[in-house]
Amino acid sequence: IEWLQASGNYVNLRVRGHEYPLRVTMAGIEERLDPSRFARIHRSYMVNLDCLQEIEPLESGDARLRMRDGSQLPCSRRYRSALRGRVGEPA
User: Dihedral, CA atoms, 31, 9, 84, 35, nearest 10 degrees?
Assistant: First the structure.
């Protein structure tokens, strides 16, 4: 799994360039994932830290994440400093 996106009563799993819907809540799947490999970055997104390429800070306090597959994902202010700490960047 490269990243996950909440969509109503589903979570879309991004795996090798394809999305697979899974009927589960984001909170439900977050409990089942390894917290050392996956991080919440937004109320609707989680990422596999091994697939993260870059964190681009935005003036609003949020950030944009660039993934190794070229995807760009939003990272809200609420999760940004914790994410930066987990990947070894100063908050």
Answer: 10
